[in-house]
Amino acid sequence: MTAPASTDIKPHSPTQLVRLVAGREVSTRIRDKGFLISSAVLIVLIIGLMVFQVIIGGGESTSRIGLVGGDQAVEQVLQQQGRALDTEVTVVQLADEDAARTAVAEEDVEAALLDPTGSRPELLVQTAGGSAEDLVQSALAALSVADQLSEAGVQLDPAPEVDVVALEGAEDDRSQATIVALLGVGLLYFLFILFGQFVAQGVVEEKSSRVVELLLATMRPWQLLAGKIIGLGALGLLQTAVIAVVGVAGALAFDVIDLPGQLIGTVLNVLAWFVIGYAFYAAVFAVAASLVSRQEDLGSVLTPTTILLVVGFVIALQAAQDPGSTLATVTSYVPGLSPMVMPVRQAAGEAAWWEVGLAVLLMVLAIAVIVRIGGRIYAGALLRTGGRLKLREALAAEKA
Amino acid sequence: MLEFDGLYKAYGSNQVLEGVSFAVAPGQMFGFCGSNGAGKTTTMRIAMGLARADAGEVRWSGRPVDEIVRRRIGYMPEERGLYPKMKVGEQLSYFARLHGLDARAAGRAAEHWAERLGLGERRGDRVEKLSLGNQQRVQLAAALVSEPDVLILDEPFSGLDPVGVDSLAEALLEQCRRGVPVVFSSHQLDLVERLCDAVGILARGKIVASGTVDELRSAATGRQLRVVAPDAPNGWAAAVPGVRVVSEQRGDTVLELAPGADDQQVLAAALATGRVAHFAWREPTLVELFRHAVTDTREVAA
Question: Considering CB atoms only, which of B1, B70, B105 is closest to A8?
Fold first, then answer.
């Protein structure tokens, strides 16, 4: 009985096997054209979105106002008033009323102010009701008050600076955070589908090419499943993190949002929900995919889960409008829906910490159940090729 | 010693294996024959842990085959399986690592086996780009790359051209010389006869015949003697004691000798008729042995 010596070969521990499988998933996927293209498209999309924001935002916050007559003081007051209304005012000196009419008609200026210091100042606009009216009106009022006071000999002390004490985060921050959360949830939705598909395709590829038989001769089904999910998950997390960093850095660079700590908190929160949600969807997708043997049949088994994802996303959109609604509150606990609804509620400041904790706990329980039952289905279905397997057949085959 | 001991397996009401037992010694090439659906693949899958036996077990060196032993077994499934989009070299190195080699040793082994099986230049190609014959070589390389202690190959020769058959046979013989027990199933019985030290014939869930080809011959068909004596009249041998005439055609006679009958007496009787052109024990081919064993399971041999 002289078996060949195999001194340099030690059997792997389960963790090593899982790591090997995960390593293969990462190294094959990271060179995959589809993956690289989708990553590039996502990043370009996000940068594009911010550039768009800058252009749109920039267009709204400037205003050109023509001025006939009047002095330095009028110009200053107009600009000051503009700042108060978040509008950058450019004052253009015009020669006379005719020039002013032409400038307004040609839309060189939004409005033209005639004789500002006289008793009957006039404002020329294309159509009545624009924002320039309010601006000019309040500027002239301020000017007139100041003039009258100085004529009456009143010396004005500079107005005291007001200390701002916020009892709650400003409404503005909240809504900005909700928007960031919604963007994040949109990203989650996309990534769940993308990486869920990767997992599903990988499972079917191994089944249809029958390589799974060679793999299962060296490892257990759960090790294969775990390696696949962890490997692709690490890649997904990496991609999400890259997008988050690009998004946050870009937002700062383009000055799209002022960045209170809460926004970074929201981004981190979305990343955390990615981990939980991905574990859930990847497991479901993998188990569903193990029931078929051909890529063409994949659609039919993945549809129910994809519908769940779409429903979650639609509810998240609704929740962004009305984070306190019953629908949003209830669905933010439902496993599978919670990764998309809860981040929006959290960002809107609608969810207490125990609510988040409960949603996470329910999700983790659901994942445990899926991994347990799904693992058996997966193990039973892997070696059965042919048509589409029923869940019950797969469970029965696991015992064979 | 690789032992298959009393394997039973049923799929639903279909009893596939009913007590399959055989043993393969280190360095022995064991040909596993049987008609379609006889249970060869199921037997091998049980050994690889891909199916669970209802009863019985497979042992290697006296120890039940478990996951740790299995990592030392090179396996080639009937349904060939490789990652179609993975490169040949990477694929081999991956399988080597799954069997316990570290990254560097796996890389070396992958390179070595790709070279050995004539795939050296295709190492960087994706498997799906190779011809079927070359894919088959990659499959074999995947089974050999971890320098296994045992080889279990399901239909390794199917789909190969004669040159491919020869190079695969040479690779397997070399493994035998290393002391590795090799079990392979095949329908190409001439090949089994040529390569194998021992043969097992599986029919209706049982091993109906096993042993060396010589043992099967002497046990399965009794002793047949072919005598060609062109001038002999019909019935020339009937008078020799213990001899039964199986067939007789223009001096070409096949005789079956009862145990204890004297072949020299037959020769003498033949020479008495005149010239003897041929006188030899007739060796039944494995094909004949197989037919015999498979069609008549009651005559279980050795």
Answer: B105
Q: Are residues A99 and A187 in the same domain?
A: no
Interface confidence (ipTM) of the complex: 0.78
Owning domain of residue A73: 62-151
pLDDT tens column, B148-200: 999 999 999 887 888 888 888 998 999 999 999 999 998 888 888 889 989 99
Q: Average pLDDT over chain A, rounded to whole?
A: 82
Q: What is the count of structural domains for chain A?
A: 2
| Same domain as B242, residue B155 | no
B52 touches chain A (CB under 8 A): yes
Q: Structurally, how many domains does chain B consist of?
A: 2
Each residue of B35-48: pLDDT tens digit?
888 889 999 999 99
B132 within a domain of the structure (yes/no): yes
Q: Write out chain A residues lying below 8 Å of B67, CB-based.
A: 11, 218-220
pLDDT of amino acid A386: 62
pLDDT in tens, A103-149: 888 888 888 888 877 777 888 888 777 777 888 888 888 888 878 88
Helix/strand/coil (H/E/C) assignment for every residue in A145-165: HHHHHHHCCCCCCCCCCCCCC
Q: Is residue A242 part of a domain?
A: yes
